[in-house]
Amino acid sequence: MFKKSISAEWLKLRHSRIWLVLIILPIISISLGSINYYFNRGVLQNEWYSLWTQVSLFYGEFFLPILIAICCAFICKLEHVNKNWNIIMTSPISARNIFTSKLVVITILIFMVQVFFLILYFIVGKLFGLSTQIPSETIGWIIRGCFASLTIIALQLGLSIRIKSFAAPIGISLCCIFIGLGMYIIKSGMFFPHSLLSIGMGMLSQEGLSIADNIQFFVMSILFTILFSSLAIHRLKTADVTT
């Protein structure tokens, strides 16, 4: 039943325009970061690391959380039309399967976006003629970015299930971006999902995380994901979805 739920979610996306968003937003963020890097090459002397600070800042701090919010709102859009939630919730599919299948599909999409972003980063670096090897840390940044993204996916998916409006969850995500930035600045980034993304992807600092920091990062990411997922599933089981 779970596999069928995932297949159903993929079918909804197959001929949609969400794929354009998944491609265009990383390209825009890479372009903005690359332009900023190009005009500040006199100051940004650390090659790949300097390029990463520019492209990942636009991408991870703003575009990726918004992209996640768009995907979550989009994957719930059909259910909010013609009271389809009522049909789904009276079907033999469990609330856990409904939520988890959406979570898995969006996670796969975001992982694909992360890989696409990494490829763009490599291409841009070569176009700028960067002579050193691409940092090995980039793999860690991408992997941690996926883990942090999972917490945001769980949060946004719960919001999109409950809120009929397509734009409202995206607006909430935008507010969370600035809250997360503030949490990062006051050194409390481990306690907010969007701040975890900043820490994990090394957007504002490329200093390597200690073993203790890495453990705390992954533990907090898992705990946030479990918390938001549990709350969303509980709401699906006990409350009527607004249709």
Spell the H/E element sequence: HHHHHHHHH
Low-confidence region ranges:
none
Total of helices: 9
Instruction: Kindly estimate the percentage of residues that lie in beta strands according to DSSP.
Output: under 5%
Radius of gyration based on Cα positions: 19 Å
Can you summarize the main beta sheet?
none
| Alpha-beta content class | mainly alpha
Beta strands, count: 0
Give the domain tally.
1
What is the straight-line distance between the termini?
A: 24 Å
Helix content: over 70%
Arithmetic mean of pLDDT: 88
Q: Which descriptor suits the 3D outline?
A: globular
In short:
The chain is mainly alpha-helical. It has nine helices and no strands.
Walk me through this protein's architecture:
It comes from Clostridium tepidiprofundi DSM 19306. The protein has one domain (2-238). With 243 residues, the protein is mainly α. The chain has helices spanning 2-14, 18-38, 47-77, 84-89, 95-127, 137-162, 167-185, 193-200, 211-238. Helix 3 (47-77) runs antiparallel to helix 5 (95-127) and helix 3 packs antiparallel against helix 7. The chain has nine helices and no strands. It is globular, with a radius of gyration of 19 Å.
